[in-house]
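Form P-L/3: holo structure prediction, ligand 2-amino-3-ketobutyric acid.
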Amino acid sequence: MEIRADKILVIGANGQLGSELTGALRQAYGTDNVVASDVHPPKENGEAGLFEQLDVLNPSRLGAILDQHRITQVYLLAAMLSATGEQHPKRAWDLNVNGLLHVLDAAVEKKLAKVYWPSSIAVFGPRTPDHATPQHTVTDPGTVYGISKLAGERWCEYYFRKHGVDVRSLRYPGLIGYQARPGGGTTDYAVDIYHKAAEGVPFECFLTADTCLPMLYMPDALRATLELMGADADRVKVRSGYNLAGNSLAPRDFAQSIRKFVPDFRITYRPDFRQQIADSWPKSIDDAAARQDWGWQPAFSLDQMTEGMLTNLKRQKEKVEI
Ligand code: AKB
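OUTPUT (holo model):
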């Protein structure tokens, strides 16, 4: 039997997670072994490396890229998030579910070694216990995004059991990173707040001061993803999506932490339609299964994240101004 070296395709490489995960994968597997792809052309300031323009809703183009680069692993990150999904429900369903099905079908046909697909805390809903939300519990999502992520989890488990596809997934909380801005999520305020603080301007938050949600700093999210994908297959016992907790934080907590570094930072609150989405999600997550099965441990505290975000954003701003 031919043993192929790992060759990775990242789909949705220009997005918030893709911008950072592509770099982390290139460091881990070598630049030439990671092909970035996105529906949009490569970013001007993006890192150098192989790139293909790809709409994941086009399965023949997907198949051609898999063959051309002799891909063995796919990271499917292209998705429409919670707030935008409410504006375009059918498009969100199509991209989030049919995009996944195209990749899972290709995994069967091309005998891919592994697939990674992100799920979300959005699979939970108003009847889910909202403190220390367990791995296996009520899932009654109220957003199209959440419904599509829950359906996606069921499809992942189905393809694992029926076809032996080694597909792995994490239920990400709100992700906070500096390299790219998120687009259309409910937890996006937690990235925007740092941009405003670094620019020295006030921030208007679309959630109330005490709306607590699970959040995770990007370096922790990247490490969790690489650790899950690097774990021996028999240690990956959850084939839907693993709960993953970082810190449970409200806008007020971010503001307090930012003031330790930017004492005159100002924040005001004007809740909009995203408040209802946030209110339906858990406040904190129990990630004991991830800890037990493959040794997950978050590393960053709120203040460490704040320091990292502000330092990097200010550095980025200085570079642009030079
Ligand atoms: C969103 O807010 O839609 C996402 C998520 C929690 O999956 N960041």
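COMMENT: Residues 81-82, 120-122, 145, 172, 174, 185-187 surround 2-amino-3-ketobutyric acid (CB under 6 Å).
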